[in-house]
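Recap from last week: sequence in, structure out.
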Amino acid sequence: MRSKWILYPNTKKKLEASGILRRIEQISRNTFISGAVYADDIIHYAKEIKESGALDKIPKIEADEFKSSLNNAFKAFFDGEVPKWLIRKNNVFEETRMELEDFLLLSGGIVFTHKLLGDDELFDYKKFGFNNIFEFTGTVGSALMNAIREKAEIYTPSGLDWVTEKSNYRTITSSIGGNIHYDLSIRQVDITAYETKDPFGNSVSYRPEIYTDYMNFSTIHSTESDFLVVILQYAEQMGIMQKIVENGAKEFITFAKSLGQRAGATTEHLMGFTETPEYTFNKTLYLQIPKLENNKNYVGIYSPYTFQSYGTIDNIYYAAYIGTENELRIQLLPTSQRECISFIPEDIDKILKGLIYQCAMGIGRTPVKQIINLLEYRCSTDYIKNKKKYSKSLLKK
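Predicted structure tokens:
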């Protein structure tokens, strides 16, 4: 099952200009779709579309090609020769297998069954500015599927989202939220508009999210305070701490207080504080986040900023580093082939506010009051005294 579809900017503009996005918003408010798609579903929708006469509204040569392409792909799917999507990343086409859900979108089945478009519009791609039938049915279907599923996402707590344009021309979305156990979870997705070909070889301006798009940081229990320390240390090393602590971190503390504290599914964030600000900062002895010379080589480079990984054995953990382009990297160690989450200096205010929002909304286990206390302590003379004290003791050793 697909988790989500990525629509490229030019496609979104077409859908908005044509009024289709508005229709999708209206329909998705009271619409539910099962998570699983079966072969019988595909056959059922195809039969209904045929009986509706929608294909008779377009030239016969296009209708015949459309039906033939779908039938051949459907047969190949069950014969073990599954058609593939091609997504060009780093000048190489990555292949991802077609799934049954894709037939639901590309055939126009999901659009037809939810009556998003009339029979005379279902395959009229030219009217809405698209290049071919499959680009049109797939794009509209994926937009509708996204909208329906977003309305139904009630099990996984979600936080603030933001989009970052990286220096390597990639577009990344970030969200600081919680997993199903309300532990800190940060998710990034590469939504770059890569050159894409659908399973029928058509160039399209949308694609399914695939495994290599995801970057994740998921820890155990109340690690929001420790992550805040990492953020602040990163800001200090990047020379942008003044932006945070200006006027006693007024911008961020005011934001935190404006949100209040909401109850979530746990009780930790409604109880007291498990540790003092001094203890939280002292745990890492005010040491620096190590700077990498090679983003793929972590061997022998110790980081004092570590987090236990959620759902893994004890010797697997996350560690914070500063990458070759001054990005904050949270890498899963000792070995991982997955790309790690990373943040650029320009993201610092978004990271902070995202963490504050996560705590205030009860998405995690840490109360927002604890984050406020840490920010106030970081701006205090006590922080400066303790840092000097620990620095001197380390130098003596």
